[in-house]
Amino acid sequence: MRGVAANERLTATVATVLLVLLAVEGATLLDMRRFLFVHAFVGILLIPVVALKLATTGWRMLRYYLGADEYVRRGAPHVVLRGLVAPAVIVSTVFLFGTGVALLAVDETHGALVQLHQASFIVWVGAMCVHVLTRLSRLPAAWRLPGRGLRLGLVAGSVAAGLVLAVAVLPAVDRLQDSITGHARIDGD
Question: Which residue stretches of the chain are H helix?
């Protein structure tokens, strides 16, 4: 069960980092006009971290359904979690981040795309609440040895990639913030 345990620990490590970053992202919702810059920056930063989380859970699902012994012995998540919650989390995550990136690309703060982003958030937060509450007890396992260094390296790499991506889109984030507040920020426009 070495592969299963390693996958579970990596997934839990990524989840721990995601909870912190998503808390920051959630705090920006208290005043979007004021914190749109932070919201968009952290949202972009989250993309590689979320991709790593989807990869670790996707790997477990793939190995289970392909019949890998250790994954089959570990068993599948409850049927409601894998049949309803997981698809809702995945689809709403793709829509949430996709519409967020699209909003930056088209420099939009009002309209149908914003409404789609908000609607996907509502679905996402509901599905994520169920997902997180059913998985919270597994997070402490992430910090057990062996392999902690590799896990932390992978997660740190995804955060670093997110930072590079977020810094790369700073001008778009800045334009979006300028358009909603009427203030010039980084670029001085």
Answer: 2-27, 32-65, 69-74, 79-80, 86-106, 112-135, 148-168, 170-181
CB–CB of 166/24 below 8 Å? no
Helix (H, G, I), strand (E, B) or coil at 67: coil
CB atoms under 10 Å from CB of 179, counted, come to 14
**Residues near 117 by Cβ (< 8 Å), separated by ≥ 6?**
96, 99, 100, 103
Residues 40 and 105: their CA atoms lie apart, in Å, by 12
Residues 177, 41: contact at Cβ < 8 Å? Answer: no
Whole-prediction pTM: 0.82
What are the structural domain ranges in the chain? 2-181
pLDDT tens digits, the chain, 189 residues: what are they?
Answer: 478 888 888 888 898 899 999 999 999 999 888 888 899 999 999 999 999 999 999 999 999 889 888 888 888 778 888 888 889 999 999 999 999 999 988 887 788 988 999 999 999 999 988 888 887 766 665 555 566 777 788 888 998 999 999 888 888 877 777 777 665 455 444
